[in-house]
Structures are given as C-alpha cells and as structure tokens.
Amino acid sequence: MSEILCQWLNQELKVSQTVSPKSFAKAFSSGYLIGEVLHKFSLQDDFADFSESRISSARLNNFSRLEPTLHLLGVQFDQNVAHNIITEKPGAATKLLYQLYIALQRKKKGVQTGVEMPTVQPLMSTKFQNTKSEAFRDQRLSRRRQNEIMAKIQAAIIQIPKPASNRTLKTLDTQKLMKKKKEAEDVANEIKKFEALIKKDLQAKESASKTSLDTAGQTTTDLLNTYSDDDYIKKIQKRLEEDAFAREQREKRRRRLLMDQLIAHEAQEEAYREEQLINRLMRQSQQERRIAVQLMHVRHEKEVLWQNRIFREKQYEDRRLKDFQDALDREAALARQAKIDFEEQALRDKEIHEQIAIERAQARYKKHYSICAEILDQILDLSTKVADYRLLTNNLIPYKLMHDWKELFFHGKPIYEQASLRHLPTKLSAEHLIELEKRNLLDNSDYEEYKNMVGEWALPEEMAENLPPSNNSILGHVIHRLIESSLPPQVESTVPELPSFAIKGCLLGKTFSGKSTALKALEKSFPIQVLSIDTLVQEAIQAFHDNESVSGAQGLREAPEEKALPVRQKSGKENQACTSSPKEVRDASLAEALPEREDKTRLDTDARKTAKAEEVVASDSFSELTVRAQLGAKSERLLKKGKSISDILLVSIMVNAINQIPIYKGWILDGFPMTLNQAKLLEEALTGYNRNLIELEGKKSQTSTLAVDPTASKEVPLPPSAFDFVMLLDISDNSSLNRMNDIMAEAFSSEAPHEDINQRVAAKNKDTDEDQNLRDQIQHRIVGFLDNWPSLEQWFTEPENILIKINAEVDKQSLCQKVKEMFMTETMKKENKVKKKLEEKEAERKEEVSLTEKTSPPPPPPPPLEPEKEKEVQLPQERSKTPAAKGKQASEPPHGNREPLQEGKGKKSETSLKRKGSPRGKSLGGKIPLKKSPAESTDVSPVPAVPAPSKPGSEEWMYVNEPIPEEIPSFLVPYWKLIENSYINSIKTVLRQLREGQHTVLAYLYDIRTGFQQFLRRPDHKQDFVSQWQADFNSLPDDLWDDEETKAELHQRVNDLRDHLWDICDARKEEAEQERLDIINESWLQDSTGIALNHFFSLMQAELNRFQDTKRLLQDYYRAMECKIPMDDAKRFTRVPLVQLDSKDILESQLRIPLVPRRSISPESALSKPKTKSILKGKIDYTLESVELNFEADEKMVMDTWQQASLAISHMVAAEIHQRLMEEEKENQPADTKEKPPQAAANKKVKKEPPPPPPPPKKKKEDKKGKGKSPPMAEAAPVVVPAEETEEVEVKNELKLRIKEEHLAALQSEEIATQFRLELIKVKALAFLEELVIKAVDVYRLMEKWLGERYLNEMASVEKLTGVARYHIETSTKIQNELYLDQEDFFINGDIKVFPDPPPPVRPPSVEKEENSTLTIEQLDNLRDQFLDIAPKGIIGNKAFADILLDLVTLNLGTNNFPSSWMNLTQPELQELASLLVTNSESVDWRKFLLVVSLPWPIPLEEELLETLQRFKALDAEQLGTITYEQYKQAGLWFTGDEDIKIPENPLEPLPFNRQEHLIEFFFRLFADCEKDPPQLDYTQMLLYFACHPDSTEGVYRALSVAIGTHVFQPIEMPSPVAEKTSSFTDMSPIEEYPELEDNFMSEERELQEDGEEKEEEIPENANTEMISMETLLQVFRGGNEVLDANRFASHQKIENIYLENFIKVFQDLGSKNLEPIEVAVLLKHPFIQDLISSYPDYKIPDVKIILQRSEHVQGSDEERSPSRLTEEKK
Predict the structure, then answer these.
(1) Residue 853 pLDDT
(2) Per-residue pLDDT at 1360
C-alpha cells in the first residue's frame, strides 16, 4: 500500500519532496507535505503560511491549519493522530494519507471542485471559525426545537378541543391582509409627509434668499459687478447636484432600513404562523395524535437504527483500517527485517567468498613458494657443486659432469647425493627412490648418447665419412611382424561413412554466468536441441516413476546404441561385452569402477551397490523399462542413499538423450561436462576413442628400440573430438555473487501477494529454502569450477583448440548476441570441414576406380589360402591405421578406416595383398611377368625393359611375409625382448660405472694434490734456531758492540745459522721428492686404467652378445618361414677377455669370462725398446717413463681385443653363409634325382631353391657374386616338365632366393653396424686412457713444480734473513722486533718486540699563574679559611675587616695570600675598599668580598638564575632548601668548566689551568655549611649573592625573582631612572677591566634602552601576581639605613627589628591583617617598598679595581706596567 501512495504522490501529484516507503513517516512528520497535497486540490488556501522546518512550533502551526480541512473532508483527525505523525510512529502517516487519498478520490469522482463546494473551501481562518460556530448554533437550535416539539407532543393532553370553523380562519386571514394594507398605507403616508416637508424647507430657503437679494440689491450692486455671473451659477448648480445626490443616498438608506424592518417583520410573522400551526396540530384528534406519536417513535427508532448502523459501519471501517494498518506495519517490519537479513547474508557470502579466495591465494602462494624455494635450493646446490668441482679440477670442469648436473637440474632432481645405493635396504625410503630416479635419468641420457653417437660418443672425423645405416630395416620388419602376429586382433570402432552437418557443442561457465539465458535465445533462433543434465536426470527419474516401458523390437534396436556408452576396457572384456546381451552390456557399463580420485571405501560401496543393482536388473519388470527409466531408477537409488550420481551414470544419461536426437539436428550441452573425468567418459562414449590409450601407444611407439620397421606407421592419428566447439562464459566470482543477490532481491521484491495466508507462508518457506540452497551451493559451485577448469581448459585446447572464451560481464542482449555470432561462425566452419571431407572421399573413390581400370585383364583366380595365411595377411592391416609401405600412393585419411566391416573386408584384403608382397599379391600384381620362365614367356606378349632388381632392405624391396608357425612368435618375441633388455642394461651399467669412475678420478687427483701441498707445509723448526740466535745477539753487552772481533764472531755465527738452515731445506727437498716418487709408483693409475679397460671391453662384449643373439633370431625366423626345424647351436658364445687386476692364480675351468694378466713395465726393462709414441711433452722426466710404457701396453691390449672381437663377428657371418650354401647343396642333390616324377615334387610342401655355386663364400664380394649367379641357375630347368608344375617350382625357387637374400642382407647389415660400434668403442677407449694418463701426468708435473718453487723460496728467505742480520751487526744495533722465518716466508714482525720500550716521561700537574690583580683559587681558599675562623656567620665589622686585610698585606711573610698588585695597598685604600663592601651598617659580608674579588666569572642573567634554581629544586626531593656536593655537581651552574684547553705537545710541559672548573668547586666551599656532614649548601642563599648587579635596583628585582622562583617585572615608570643610573655607572666605572661584565651589562643596557618604549606592551596582564610572604621579604632585605651603633651584633639585631616593624606595617596597610602573603604587584606599589628598592645597596656589585688602579698610579714603578697589564686582561 505504501508503494501505491508513493506512486500517487511522486508521479501524479509530483510533490516537492520525493517520498519512498522507507522515509514515509519522516517525510510527513512536519505536516508540510499534507498541506501541499491539499493545496494541489485547491483545498488549502493558506498553504503559504506553512513551514518546512521540523521544529515543534512549525509542526503545531501546520497541523492546526490542517485540522479544519481534514474534518470537512471527513478524515478522522485529532490530537492523538497528530502526535503519532509528529513522533513518526510507524503506520500513522500511512493511515492518514490513505484516508485522505480515499476522500479526495471520492470528491474527484463526484466532480466537486473547490468552486462548487464553498463550504469545503475555507477562505480564512476567522471566517471558517464563524461559519463553524453559526453551523453549530443552527444545529443546536434545530435539535433543541425538535426536542421541545417532541416534549410538547408527548406531554400534550389527549382530549383536544374541537377546532374552529373555517369562517374564523377566513376572518383571520382578511384581518391580516387588512392589517398589512394599513401598515403599507401608513408607511406610504409617512413617506409622502417626509417628502412634502423636505420640499417646504427648500422653498423657504429659496424665498429667503430672494428677499435678501432684493433688499440688498442696491448696496451690493458694485460687489456683484466684480464677480462673474457664470461662476456663481456654476457653484449653485454644483451645490444643488450635491444636495440631490445626498437626498438620493438618504433615500436609499431609508429604503434599505425599511426593507430590513419588513424582512424582520415577515420573519416574526413566519414564526407566529409556525406557532399557530403547532397549536393547530396540537388541537388535532386523539387518534391523529396517537398516530403521530407512533410515527415519531418509528421515525426515532429508524433514526436510532440508522445511527447504530452508521456507528457499526464506522467501527467496521475502523477495524478494517486498523487491520490493514497492522498488516501494513507487519509487512513493512517483515520487509525491513528480510532486507536486513538479505543484506547481512550477502555480506556473509561475500566474506566467505573472500575468505575462500584468500585461502586459495595462500595455497597457490604456498605452492609457488615451495616450487621457487625448491628451484632456489637446486640453484644453490648447482652453484656449490660447481664451486666444489672448480677446486677439484683447477677451474676446468669436464663437459660430461656439467651436462649431467644440468640434466638433473632441469628435471628437478637434487644434485647432491641423498642416500647411498651400494647396499639397498629391503624397504626403500624416499631418498633411495630419488637416488634411483637420478641414476635412471642419467643412465637413459648416457644410453641415448651412446645409441645416437652424440655427446661423448660423437664420431671422430675419420669415422664420420663411413657412417653405416642407423637402422636395420629388415630386422625391424621381422620384429614388427613377430610382435604383430603375437598380439590379438583389435576391433575397430565403426563410424558412419558420410559425416553429418549437425553441429555439436557445449556451453560452460560459472553459476549465474548466463548459460541458460544464452541457450534459450540460441534455441529460439536456430534449430538445435539444448540438453541440461539436471533436466535429463529429473526426466529419467520421472520416467522411472511413470514406468516408461518399451517393446522388444525397440529394446533390440536400442541395444547397439547402448554399446557405445561404456568406457573401453581391456581386450578380454571387450570381447565378452560384444558377445553378451544388451542388458549385460548396460550392467557392465554402469557397474564400472569409479574414477581414480575416489578412495577405496567409495569403491567398496559402489561394488556392493552394483551387486544390488544386478539383482534388480534380473527382474523381468525392470528389464521391460526403457534405458532412460533404468538410468533414472539407479540415479534415484543413489540420491535416496544421500550419495551423488557417479560420472558414468551421468554420461550414460546424457549419451542416451543425445542418441534420441535426429542425426540432422545439432545439440548443445548446458554446463556439462563439469569435470575432466566426465569429459573423458563423454568423449569415449561418443567417439569410441580413449585419448589416454592413444597417447600410451604413441609413447610406446616413440620408445627406443634396437630395430625399427620403416614401413610401420609411427604417427598415431589424432582422436576425433566429441564437440565441434566449447564456449566458456567468463565471469568473475564477485560478479557471480552480485548476480545471485540481484536475482534474489528481484524475486523478493516482485513477490505477488497471495490471497490465502497459508499459501503465502508456504510459498515464502519454499522460496526461502530455495534461496538458502542456492546460497549454500554458490560457494561450492564456484570453488568446484575453479578447481576443475584448468584441467578442462587443457583438455579442450589439446590437441585441437576448440575452446572459445566470451566475456559474460555484459547485459543479457549483448551476451546473447555474442553467443549467436560465435555459433554462426562455428556452424560455417563445420560446414566447410564436412564439404572438404566429402571432396576428399570423392577424389579417393575416383582414384580407386582408375586403379581398377588399369588392371582390367583379370588374372586367374589364385588358389585358396590356408586360414593361417589369411589371418597373417589381414592382421597387419587391421593393426595399422595408415598404409604400411613407402613410395606408394598417399594413404587414406583416418575416417576411411572407420567404414563398416561388411564393406571394408574386401578393401582390406586387397590393400594387404598389394602392400605386404605376399605370393598372392604377386600373382595379382604386375611384377610376375618379370620373373616368368622362358616357357611361359612364349605365350605372352612382349614386355618392356626390365628395371634393375631392388636391394633387400630398400624402400622398393618387397619383404617376404610367408606364414610362420604359431609357436615361433611366442618364442622369438620374448627372446628379442630379452636381447634388448640385456643389451640396454649392460650398456647402462657400463656407462654408469664410467660416469662414477670419473668422479673418483677427480677426487683422487685432488686428494693427492692437497696432500702433497700439506706435506710441503709440514713444520720445519727453523724458527727455533732463528729465535735462539736473535736472543743471543741481543744479549751481547753494550760495550762489545763496536769491537771488531766481536763483529767477526757475530758474522761467523750468522754463517753457521745460514748453513744449518740450508741443510734443513735440502733435507725437506729430498723428502718431498721421495714422497712424489711414492705417489707416482702407487698402483692407482694402473688400477684405474685396468678398470676402465674392463668397462670398455664390457661394452664390446655387449655389442658382441647382441650380434650373436640377433644372428640366432634371424636364423630361427627365416628357417621357420622355410618350414625348417630350428638348428641347435651347440657352440658357446664368444667372450671378450677382461684384464686381471689382482695377481691371484685362478684355474681356467673356474672362469666364466677369460682374463688377461696385467703386466706393468718397469723403466729398466723398457730402456732398450724404441719409443714410437710419446704423450710426455717437454723435458724428459724419467720418473714418468713407466707411466708412458704402461699406457702403450694398455693401448696395445685395446687394439688386440678389438681385433679379436671384430674377427669373431666376421667368422660368425662367414659360418652362417657357409651353412646356407651347404643346406642348398643338400637340397639340390635329391632335387636332381626327383626331376623325372614331377607330380611328386609338385605335391611337396617344402619349397626349394636352386643350388648355389660350389665354392662357399667367405667375404661380402663373393656373397654378392653368388647372389648374382643364383637366378640363372634357377632358370636352367628342364623343359620336359609341364607348364603348371614348372610355374609352381619357379615360384618356390624364387621365394627361396628372396628369403636367402633378405636373410643374408639383414645379417650383413647387422655385422656392419656392430663392427662400426666396436671401432667407436676402441677409439673412445684409447681417448679415455690417454685423457686419464694426461691428467695424472699433469698432477705429477705440478707436484714437481711446487717442489722446486718452494725450495728456491726457502733458500731466498734464508738469504734475506742473513742480510738483515749482517746489517744490524754492522750498525751495532739490537734487533728489537722479532725475526720470523716460517716455511718460505721471512719478515720482521712489528707486533712483537723482544725487549720492552723505555717508559714515557710523567707530565707535571697544572699550576695557576697570577694574572694582574686576580686572586688565584689557592689564595681565595686561604682567605675563606681565615674569614671562616674569625666570622663563621659571614658578617664582620668594617674596622676589623680593614685591619685583617692590612695584616695580610703587610705581614705576608711568604704566605702568598694576595697578588703582587695588592701588596702596595695602604691602610686608607684598604679602608676605602672595606667601605665599598659595607652597607649602611658597620659590618661587611666577607663572602660577598670573596665573590667580587674572584672575578672574572660569567655574570648570570635572570633567566639563567631561575633555571639553575629549578634544577636545584628538582634535585631537592625533600624540599629542605639544601643540597649536597654530588647534587650540586649534577645540577651544575649556568656555566661549565669545559674550556678549549690546548694540550701542549711537549710531554714535560704541564697542562693549562682550568680556572672555571675550579671556581665552580670553590663556590660550593664558599657558601656551604661545613659544620654538617656531609656539607649542605643553601642554594637559594647562594643564588641571592649571584643576583647582584651593577645597578642596585636591578639587583633587588633579580633577588626578588630568585626568592619567589619566578620573574618579577618592574613597574612601568621605572625604566628611565634605571637606564640613567646604569649609564652613569658605566661612565664612572672602568668596566673594561671585566670583559664578562662588559658583555652582559652592556647587553642588558641595550635591551633596556631599546625596549623601554615597548615595556608597557610586553608586560603581560597577569604579571607579578605571585604571592610573597614576610619570611621571603626578610630573606631578600637584610639591612637598614638608620643604624649608627658600632657593635655589629647589636646593630644587626636592630636592623632586623626595624625592617620587621616596617614590613608588618606595610602588610597591614595593604590589607593583610594576619600577615598573610600578598601579591607582588600590590606590594611593589607601596611607597615604602619603592623607596627601599631604589635605595637598597646590598645587591650592587662594587668596583674594587678602581682602588687597585689608583694605587698603581701612585706608585711610580707601575706607571709603565699598567697599560700592558690592561692589554693582557683585555686579551
């Protein structure tokens, strides 16, 4: 309802403020909008007086103006309603607006505007009140009148008099008429009289005016002449007009009054008539009165009923309004709560998604971090490994090692060894497995290099020219045929011959990405079928519930369709599935194992489920159901158990639905497949191909084998894709969540209201459950899609990219348009692709037709082949999907092999016979005339020139594919696998041993190098001899240093030391040479070369074994093809002898492998032998000759072994050829005897060849000649035999010849390859041995180099030592620093001294010098001690003080109490000096005297004094006013004792005296109380002394500031006198004697003079508001000016009493009766205090220097000295 009102207000009325359901109550709380609504309908004219403000007065004004209008409209409005709206009570404003809306709509329907109902439109508030009061008054009067009438009626008497006759009534009427006429006449007469009276008055006035004019005519003639007659007349006319107008107005007023009176009279008459009528009615009959009473009662009852009904309807309306309002409120509250819950749920979902995203990002980060950490560890391992081997190899790492490390690094394997593989445990650990993987990786890499002859096994230049063929094609063909014949036949999948134009695809994406919307639009625009797996599962379950059954014919027809559903299994299962019934096929397909990612418990439960499913399927009723119903039953069974439907079941449902679609109609899957497993199963079910099996076949075909068939196809065809395209609607996770919230919010807001409350609640619950399920699943769906999509993306992009990504974060129309465009593009691609395939098929058909036309003369029908032969012919073609032979016509495309079996059998047989080269194929082909006998050639037309015969193994060679017995492949295939495995494992083992041996060689060579270096650095004890000699040398007495004999003796000792050290060096050299010889003569090199030789000999043995086994396999194969029994080879395999490393004697019978004894050649025995080759370059070293000789012996052994192996192979080939020839001779002998009975010879199954030439060939040339001579011998057959038998014999002989040629060619090809590999092994063995010997020889030579260089360095260091010793001998000086001789190094160690240095001189203490008249610290201390003894309190008499100074000056007697300038002072000068220090009393403060004479020291400013005071108070925790010396030093004064003191360079010169530091200590001793322990300093008293100033007034203010603790400002009128006093003081006193005073005082004077004018402005308002007590005041002022007594103690007491009385009086004058502290500003205004401050002299610094300067001028000797002293003081 609130939305309807909002729409009405916002859209129809367009109020000034937009109203929403949320802000409804708030918008109408002021009443302004209600007034605006009424104003829109022209019902509120005083809307201009309304206010939009929300204050209480404005709201009351608005609602008071609204109340009358709402009452007139019939809207219920009172004080409570207004209060509820103002307080924004929910629903109050909605209810009022709803009533107002109804009332206005009614008025609007009645077409009543404001003009047509003036009663509704109040003009003004006062007018409205009057109208209301009049209406109420009339209503009350009418009701009162009705009540009175009813009372009269009820109280009337029943007996009514008889009414009067009609005559009386007529008379009454006539009387009334007469009366009215009379009254009217009277009124008319009165009017006439009034008019006559007025006329008389006018006439009288006119006559009077005329007479007056006549009498005065003569007198006023002159006056009248002066005026104009026209003006007068105009005035009269104007006056008359005015009088006439006035009369008219009076007449109108009179008539109006009369009319009013007439109307009032008529009203009275009407009332009178009503009363008469009532009286007449009262006089009616009793019956009429009773009827009237009854009628009145009935009317009253009706009125009561009507009122009750109105009241009840009103109650019903109120109840409905209340219920409606309650419903509105409840709905609003539920909507608000639902909205809040929805927003909170959306926030929770977003937080959950963010948390999941964070967890996924963290997992991805951890994964990437672990990968990067692993890579970094491998990089570090590689770096450290390279660094280690750089040390081992002198920065020359072999290429092979670096290659192996890179191989391990690129494959992610650790480079360092994790575990040892020498003794493997029964249960391998992870480290052992890693090491095995590393070993296999390197073994495979080494084997590939060996096989392909690259890397270390690369061919030298001389061998690269004669490179043999890389593959034995004949052997490869033999192996391929054997393997093919041993495998079972493979059933190929059938594919329709004509491809369909119908398009197939799927649409994938996250939840709410728009898949279904886009597919709906696509389905409307194109003829396609959209398949959704959810819908299909529901339909399948519904089909099961509906018991959807099918007839037998339909079931048989659907059976082959279902066979495509199951996943392809093993061959045995496939065959079983092909022969079983359709029901068993379905059961087998649905009972398959689940994907590998499911655990074992899931497999067990599925197995049990499958068993139960089989029981259900066994019932007849279940078998009658359709496939869809059966699949639905299984799905429902799983869902009821709470399990998910398996992927196989889902794919089966989907494929069943796809099979129902017509072949010409396309289909698109909606959101399926969702996982990689589903995609694989779906592709296999739709195409019949398993991509994994095809990839395994491809890998298997790519694996390295020893022989490859060139005719076999190596390329595995790509499997066809199940889809033509896959579209991905890409959308972000947040967009998916936002779309879900938008859809849910839209569904919530657009909910249609239900009439039934139960339906509404049920629908709400259902929607809530769906929304909750959607909310619960959205996170899992998104996470599942993110987990499965990377694998799906890779699946759909490889090998053919069919994936199309579309940005789905757009609106619906754009998304649908994009999908349509992509679909049209893919449709066009599919059509072009199908057309191209059809064209290719048509071209192939034409080509086949042309081939059949070429072979138009049909050959005679060939004899029927045996079943085995037929099978052999067809099997290879079935196994290979592409044509086998090279050089033929291009093969058919892959879809050509998918033809039906009925059509493809004939084609397969034809192609197999053509391409395999069987006898039947030859009879059909065109090569038969080339080999025909002469007898047959006579009957045939001439043949063109014959080309040269093809060579066995070439591309043109037609291989012999005669049938072989079935047991031969079963024996030869495992035998060949054994040959391959033995060969590969032997090669890998030997190469592994060579690889590991290289590490051993490097480690050994490094060990002997480092061991020899350590041996060279062994201790030699030469330093002991040098230290002993140096000690003896320094211990020589000083008097013998310059003696020549002593020097000669010292030189001799030096020579002896040198000889002894040289002997030590020679002995160490001999030991090192012997150590080197021992290392060279060790058997390590011989053992290493022997082991390496055995490894290379093992490689030769492996090649030899392979050749022998291959020879035997070829022999057995071709003998079996000739239907001969395999020969029993009794010969033992040829063995290559190995080197015997130990000297033990072993019998030959105990040896399986022959051993060759190792003979190491000594240099003595080899001296006589000539040297043919030398690996030792440069100067000849006889210690290494044995190494070279042993190398030559090993080289000879390698050559001998290679020749032996090569000869063994040649002998084996020759023996095989010889055996072939011998067998041919044996076969030819009985053939000659049996030529006469040709029929018997023709019936034999064994086919024979013509005999070869008699000499057995032993070499290749002879073999070739024999091959060339055999065909003519075959042609020389007797002519007597019939033609048919001759042709059969000819065919047999030709077949034997081809078998022989092919066998010998394969054997010779294998021989060439083996010989080549043996020669390569020989070359690499010689190179390996040479490299090993060169490495050892380089190490041995390096050891020799180190030995020589070390010996020379040691001899040179001894020479340097000798030179230093001789220098000190000649200079006769001791060797203080240690001489250090260690190994080959010699140096003088400056850090060690053999005897100590002399001690440095001690610096004398600093002494203060006298400067001018300044007293030293010592003099000040002496004076303090003397004054302290005389006057401990600090006050002494003036005369006594002068006497003491006179005694100290005159009776100095060496005490040095004063400087020299003080010694000239006389008694008057001393008295004058005392008078300067005396206050106005007779006493002197000797502490002030010492403070003045201790100048110069920095004079403090007032701020510095206050800061020092605060530091002292901070350290005085108990606030006692005293501190100790430690606290005094910690706080410090305003200056420090740190001065820039220059330290003299001369150590004998004392340091300068630091006067300031000593002054700080002296001040503590001066002012501290020494009687206490420890001494205590009254810091306030001390700072009062320092508050003295050259200006006494300034000094007093400074003292007051110190005593109070804050700055005291001087009064405003004080600056000018102070400036004058200060200036006079500076003029009269020589301040230049004190530089510090001059600086400080001059700066203060400047400040006073500059800031004098601004002093008033700088003084703050609250200045001098601090309180000062009597004790503080007495502490500052210590003297008086009215003391005359000479006794200092009495005068002192008298002074205090005088100040105390004066101060008490001052305090009392200022209002402090009880001597409470008063403000400083008030105190300073008192005249006594002002006079005292201006005249108090105790805080003035006296100038003592004046007296001293005067005494110097008096003395004549000091006149010249005084200027110089003044200059020094200034400096």
Answers:
(1) 62
(2) 92
Contact predicate 1187/1080, CB 8 Å: yes
Choice between 207 and 1151, residue whose per-residue pLDDT is larger: 207
Q: Is 375 left (phi over 0), alpha (psi -120 to 50) or beta?
A: alpha
**CA separation for the pair 602, 600 (Å, rounded):** 5
Q: Which residue has the higher pLDDT, 1178 or 380?
A: 380
Q: What distance in Å separates the CA atoms of residue 1096 and residue 1318, rounded to the nearest whole number? A: 10
Residue ranges in 1394-1537 assigned as alpha helix (H): 1417-1430, 1438-1450, 1467-1477, 1486-1493, 1502-1515, 1525-1531
Give the pLDDT confidence score for residue 1392 in this predicted structure: 80
Check whether the bond before 1230 is cis (ω within 30° of 0): no
**Distances 441 to 558, 984, 986, 1098, 1328 between C-alpha atoms, Å:** 52, 14, 16, 21, 23
Stretch (H or E) spanning 1522:
strand 1522-1523
* pLDDT for position 127: 46
Residue whose C-alpha is closest to residue 1321's, from 1210, 1201, 1173: 1201
Q: Which residues contact 1154 (CB under 8 A, 6 or more apart)?
A: 1135, 1137, 1138, 1148
- For residue 81, the surrounding DSSP H or E stretch is helix 79-86
Rg of the Cα atoms in the chain: 70
Q: Token match 């009597």: residue? A: 1670
Choose among 407, 398, 478, 393: nearest CA to 444: 407
- C-beta of residue 467 within 8 angstroms of C-beta of residue 1008: no
Q: How far apart are CA 4 and CA 481, in angstroms?
A: 89
Six-digit token string for 317: 């309306």
What is the rounded CA–CA span in Å between residue 134 and residue 127? Answer: 11
- The residue to which tokens 């105009």 are assigned: 234
| Cis amide prior to 1496 (ω within 30 degrees) | yes
Closest CA to 1723 of 1668, 1681, 1672, 1678: 1668
Beta bridge partners of 1436: 1484
DSSP β-ladder status, 803-807 and 1568-1569: unpaired
Region 468-490 average pLDDT: 78
Which pLDDT band, with edges at 50, 70 and 90, does 786 fall under?
A: confident
Instruction: For residue 985, count other CB atoms closer than 10 A to its CB.
Output: 13
Task: Band the pLDDT of 700: cuts 50, 70, 90.
Answer: low
What is the per-residue burial (b if ≥16 Cβ within 10 Å, else e) of 822-849? Answer: bbeebbeebeeeeeeeeeebeeeeeeee
pLDDT of 1362 over the 90 cut: yes
- Calculate the CA 649 to chain-centre distance: 40
pLDDT digits (tens, 9 = 90+) for 420-449: 888 888 888 888 899 899 999 999 999 998
User: Quick check: 574 pLDDT over 50?
Assistant: no
CB 887 within 8 A of CB 917: no
Whether the per-residue pLDDT at 1121 is higher than 60: the answer is yes
- Candidates 160, 396, 123, 372; CA nearest to 278 is 160
The candidate with the shortest Cα–Cα distance to 1591, out of 1650, 1647, 1540, 1674, is 1647
Task: Supply the pLDDT for residue 898.
Answer: 37
Output the average pLDDT for the chain.
74
- Other Cβ atoms closer than 10 A to 1448: 20
Query: CB neighbours of 8 closer than 8 A, spacing ≥ 6?
Result: 101
Per the listing, tokens 């080759």 go with 1173
Give the pLDDT score at 13: 84
For residues 1592 and 1587, give the distance between their C-alpha atoms in angstroms, rounded to a whole number. 10
- Contact status, residue 815 vs residue 729, Cβ threshold 8 Å: yes
| pLDDT tens digits, 1491-1535 | 888 888 888 998 988 999 999 989 888 888 899 999 898 888 888
Give the type of residue at 1265.
K
